[in-house]
Each structure stands twice: as C-alpha cells, then as structure tokens.
Amino acid sequence: MNETNVSTYPVTDRVREALAVTLRGCEELIPEADWLKKLARSEATGVPLRIKLGLDPTAPDIHLGHTVVLNKLRQLQDLGHQVIFLIGDFTSLIGDPSGRNTTRPPLTPEQIKANAETYYKQASLVLDPARTEIRYNSEWSIPLGSMGMIQLAAKYTVARMMERNDFHDRFKAGTPISVHEFLYPLMQGYDSVALKADLELGGTDQKFNLLMGRHLQQEYGQEPQCILTMPLLEGTDGVEKMSKSKNNYIGISEPANTMFAKVMSISDTLMWRWYPLLSFKPMREIETLKAEVEAGRNPRDAKVALAKEITARFHGAAAAEAAEADFNNRARGGIPDEIPEVSLSGAPLGIAALLKSAGLAPSTSEANRLIDGGGVRVDGSVVSDKGLKLNAGTYVVQVGKRKFARVHLS
After folding, report:
1. Model-level pTM?
2. Fewest 10 Å CB contacts: which of 165, 177, 181, 289?
3. Where does the RNA-binding S4 domain start and stop, copy by copy (predicted)?
4. Cα separation of 220 and 148, whole Å?
C-alpha cells in the first residue's frame, strides 16, 4: 500500500486546534490518531485535505438537523481544507438501505436532478461555495461497467455485509433483501476511492457505509480515509430526531420570524445540546455562557443569542433583529407587522369553520379543541364560546402564539 509516512510531521498548536474543531460535537472520529497525522502533514506541506460528504438527494428540503454535518464541513473549510459535496445521482438509483426495514424505492433521474439543485442551493447558505467542489458519482460509477462492478463486489464478503444491523434484522425477520442493496455500500465506498478522500462525514446511521470506503481504499492501495460521524439532532420536542414527519423541525427556508420563534420554543436543556452543533461560537464562549446561566443569568439571554445567530445565518442580521422584535411584540400580546390576509364569504360564519377555512386549524374538531384550550383570540379577545358566529367585517384572528390571519369576511 502506498501510504505516505505521515508520522514524521510535527503536531503544532495549530494542528491541535484543528483537531479540537474536528472533534467538536462529533459522535466518533475513526481513527483519531490517523486524522491527527493527516492534519500535521497538511499543516507542514500546505496541501489541503480532501473532505467528502455524500448526499443522496431523496428530498429537496433541508432542516436544521441536516445542517449539523454541513456546519462541520464549513468549520473544516475555514481551516483551509477542500470540501467535496458529492451528489449520489448514481447511488440514488439503488436506494440507501441504511436504517430501513424495507427496500427503498429508487428515484427517477429527473427527481434526482431537481432535488440535487435545490439541496445544493440551500446547502450553500452554510458552505462557502468558493471552497466547495461539487461532484456526481455517476462520473465514475457508470464507466465502471459490469466487469468493474463484479471486480468491486469481489472485494467484500456476504458474511461481512450481513453484519450490518439493518440487513441482519431484515434477514432474521424474513423480510426480503434485494441483491442490488448490497451494491449500495460498495458504491458509496468506491466514491472514496475515486475521490481519494482523506475524511468522510456522515450521520451515525452511516457508519457501516463510511467504514466501507476506508476498507476499499486499502484494497485499491490508497491511504485509508478517516471517518467522522455526527449525532442526529433532536427536534424542537427534545425527544425524537428532527424530522418533517414528526413536525418537530425548523426548515432553513422558513420565514425569519418563524425560525426565531421555533428556536425560542425549545427547552433550556435542549438549548445546550443544540449550541455546539448549530452555533459557530467558539466552545470556550459557549462554556462561559453556560456557566453564567448556571450562576443565575437568565437562560432566555442564551436562547435569544442562539435564535439570532441561526436566523441571521439564513436570513441576514437585519432580519434576525426584526424577528427578535416581532417575537417580543407577540410575547406582550401584540400583533405582528405582517400577517396573512384571508378573504372568506358566508357571513355569519361559525368560529370553528372560519379557523379551518383560514388555514389556522386543520379541521373543525381541532379548531374546537383549540377554543376549549383558550388558544384562540379574535381582535385580541380570547374566544371561549365554540358557538360564536362572526358577522361580515375584518378581524385579526390568532391561534396560539405564532399563527395570525387578518380575515376579511363577507
């Protein structure tokens, strides 16, 4: 194996600082000693390390949970390293079996292309586009051909493949596993060979695939990549991982006011879990802030700082300041400057039907539940009568702390 002897390079303070940046908030760095040697070599020679993130564009919308890995990439870019944003247009045709108990349906090339463009546009709000190399794994996967695929498949055993938890569990349960699913980790690993990656990032659920890249690089005579897994971010509920299906997510394209308010809604405990993963503040600043809160400072101050930082990242500093003012205004019972305008007919209209028609409640039964809970206001007054009918006119209708509409009823 043509592995460079990297152990002779000095471990300077800058190298140690780079290691600390790498380790911040991460779940695992494998193997840490090899990464330290790679950092030392890069520092001594001035040659940036190649850092890979592979993404199958299965969905076009990014939420804060997705940015945990992107934030880490940005930190490594800021240290001077080369980030490779790899679009898995070929592997998306297979479908990633990670964490699945059924075969994932493949996407069409058209879906992949549309999702990839949207995904990268959003990711560029975190990454520095000037220091990001965009690649598509069809570049080398298609030319590999059937003979190359067979030769690649010969470099890993079925027994090792079945050690993977999702395959093992599905086999034990008698759930079908298609042969093509074995190709997914092999092709992801081959991406690292093609790109000569020094480090690959992914979620904890990607560990098997990431290790495959390391194994295949050794098989092909390359210096093996290190792997860095990042934790899965808990959503706003503080329990489940952030997910659209759980409705505990904050989308990075959501309006600034909504984003700010959602961050403010998290618990004080969850805030300290989010800080190292979502903030770019140095860890010593975060630790000082946490110590001040533990000594009696209002935790709301720390949460406002986090909400403003995250909102400013995606909307700019001015929008973050305005979102804070809007949030404070709502907290005092005020009405936001800009609220949706809705025109409805059918006066006099029952309050539950109005809430549903205005998009403030998904159903009349949910609208009645909100009224019972004291969560509905009309022109600032709490509605307690589910039988209330509103005559023709214009009303400011509020549900909870964040939903407003100016309803023009005729």
Report:
1. 0.74
2. 165
3. 349-410
4. 13
Is the predicted pLDDT of residue 336 greater than 90, yes or no? no
* 244 marked among binding-site residues: yes
Please provide the average confidence, as pLDDT, over all residues in the chain.
Answer: 87
Query: Can you name the CATH fold of 341-409?
Result: 3.10.290
The whole-number pLDDT of residue 106 equals: 67
Fold of 13-230: Rossmann fold (3.40.50)
Annotated domain spans of the chain: 13-230, 256-331, 341-409
- CATH 1.10.510.10 at 256-331, yes or no: no
DSSP, collapsed to helix, strand or coil, labels residue 108 as coil
- Long-range CB contacts (< 8 A, 24+ apart) of 232-241? 232/65, 232/68, 232/203, 232/204, 232/205, 233/64, 233/65, 233/68, 233/274, 233/277, 233/278, 234/270, 234/273, 235/65, 236/262, 236/265, 236/266, 236/270, 238/266, 238/267, 238/269, 238/270, 241/65
Q: Which of 107-121, 187-201, 218-232 has the lowest mean pLDDT?
A: 107-121
